[in-house]
Amino acid sequence: MLTKYLIIFLISMVPLIELRGAIPYSQFLHLPVVPSFIICIIGNMLPVPIIYLFARKVLEWGKDKPVIGKFFTFCLEKGEKGGQKLKEKAGNGLFIALMLFVGIPVPGTGAWTGTLAASILDMDFKSTVLAAMSGVLLAGILMMIISFLGFDVFLK
User: Fold this and answer.
1) How many domains is the chain partitioned into structurally?
2) pLDDT digits over 122-146, tens only?
3) Is the pTM of this model over 0.85?
């Protein structure tokens, strides 16, 4: 059982997959709902402060390096595009926009991209973490509902 929890914890930390993949997988593994939800939230949030504080600096450093340059440039461009979209749509409501960007469970949105975009927009650390946490909770609730509905359909 501990191994299954470790697996969903690690899946929650993976960019692009995050808890959007970990929560349905936890239900596939028949893990209890509440502990799975909590573990997926923690796993998804754990990288957020690190991303905010260091990702932009590392990506800027590596964007012109031979092997990693193209990927790092792609990540920077994705973060900048996400940040600009947030800024255009949000105006003064950047916190809510970031929360919704992180919270709507579609590919390309999530804590990783949202936090990178917030750091590129120079949003303050506390607001970024709170918006990401709110968004992760929202995404977790939505994914849990979708998982229950989806598995219910397949089991009948």
Assistant:
1) 1
2) 889 999 999 999 999 999 999 999 8
3) no
